[in-house]
Each structure stands twice: as C-alpha cells, then as structure tokens.
C-alpha cells in the first residue's frame, strides 16, 4: 500500500495511489500492538529460540522489518516524498495572533444578532468567544507541551486555582502515561512581555466571559459565537485546526506547513532556546522518558522544516545582536 514495489519485486503503475511513509509507520505500530497485546508476543524482537529452535517474539519487531522500513524511507526520499513534520510555531508568531485577536472588532463581545447566509465576510471565521477559546488552547498546548486532543478534553475539575497567579492543571489521561500517576502542571502568571504565551491570563479571560465551572472547558460552539450548554461534549480537533488555519491567514502566514502539533514542537523549542531549560527538565515537564533511550525530544528540538530563529549567515558574526535575555541571570549570550 505504501511501497512503489509489488510483492514480486515489480514496479507498481505510477497512477496507482500510494500512502506515505508516516502511514507505513502507523501500520507497523498497529501490527506491533496486535502481536504484542492481542497475541501475547510482547515487544521482544523476533528471533530463533536457542532452546526449542522455534521462532519466538514479536514478528513486527524484527531486523528484517526494521531493514525494510529504512529502505522504504530512503526510496520515499529519493522519489521526492520526504516525510514532513508540522512546523514548530514561534513565540513571535503567537504574539502576532494575539495582537490580531485583541483588536477591538475581534475581541469585544457583542450582543447576539442572527444573520442570514452569505452576510458574513471571509475574515469573520470566529467571534470573540471562539478566539478566546482557541488562544487558550494555543497557550496550554505551547507551554505544557500538550497534544490538542489532550487540551480539548480538559475539564473544570482538572484545573485548580492555587492563588491569583497560579493554576494547577492535572490531566486524567495522557498518551505517554495511560495508567495514572500523571504529574500536574503548575502554571504561573507570565510577565507582561510574555502575556501572549500566558495560560493563566488566557484561562481567566475565557472563564470570565463564559462562566464555565463544570464539565469540559472547551465546549462545542454554536451559531452566534455561543458555547454549548451541554457540558459533556467538547470541541472537536478539526474545528480547532480550522480556527488555527484561519488565524494564520489573518496575519498573512501560509498555514500549510503548520498543524495542531506545531504548538507542542514550538513550546519545546521555546523552553530550550529562550528559557534555557536543560533537556532533562523539558522531558520531566513534558512527560517524556528521561532515560534518553529513544530521544524523541530531539525530533521536537531540531527539524529542517522549522523557521530558523537565527540566520545561518550570522553563526560566526561576533557582532550580532544579543538574543533574549535570561530572566534569572540577565545574560544575553548563547553560552548562557
């Protein structure tokens, strides 16, 4: 389905639709799960038993399959089908979205007035309440390194107000920690210059306007920019992604390289580059393993698809402008 070769080694017809390398990875992951969980094969690599002489382990975790996946990716790249991850969003771009959303015509709550089909303009994709909702989702995904589906499933009882400047967010479920013991996120009110990244401010704005104190925080939106009264149903990811794309178009940014995973990637780079967090601290905060056996975090920190925070021609420019100052020591050099 993903390969350009047939099982007999022949080439498939060029007009035949083929899935990408990412789909092949998902197929292998499904096979690994099926053999491991459903058939009790675990994650032990497929090998010949020295005792019985029979093949044991998980067939999907074998040298042959691994070799094939490497070969498939190489051929995909050579044919121009290189896998592209979502581009990491930068704090500066979130700042542009914040500035646009806070314009009077986009932020001021207006009385409900029904409109007829065709009356809405192309730039009126979201009202003030929806813009508040998506910006809260932006900040939570960015600062807490969350997936969008994890953000949209947050309920009121998952958030505890510690004091005027501190929130405690405890997720009931995470992809990387499905059996409880999930560490909470303690979110502090960020300084004024980082207000566009501050989940505490965004949450306060959202709660003040919606008065939501039970059920899902991100409710389904209905006509007239009104949130649903049904607290048991949350906003779907497709709706949030649509808002994000339109928001990017508003600031004249091509949305095609970006996705909802851009916030998780961008937040990881922000913690590393701007806040100077060490990798171990980022892993602990984001819920990644700290044994560094898989180094998933490297894919979030480094990607050819990202916007460069510093132009390549300035790498050896000793007179270049200073970078963001560290709030603890005040240094602006990269060695800090």
TrEMBL record:
InterPro entries: DNA_brk_join_enz, Integrase-like_cat_sf, Phage_Integrase-like_Recomb. GO terms for biological process: DNA integration; DNA recombination. One of its GO terms (molecular function) is DNA binding. Keywords: DNA recombination. PANTHER family: DNA ADENINE METHYLTRANSFERASE (PTHR34605:SF4), PHAGE_INTEGRASE DOMAIN-CONTAINING PROTEIN (PTHR34605). This is DNA breaking-rejoining enzyme. It comes from Gymnopus androsaceus JB14.
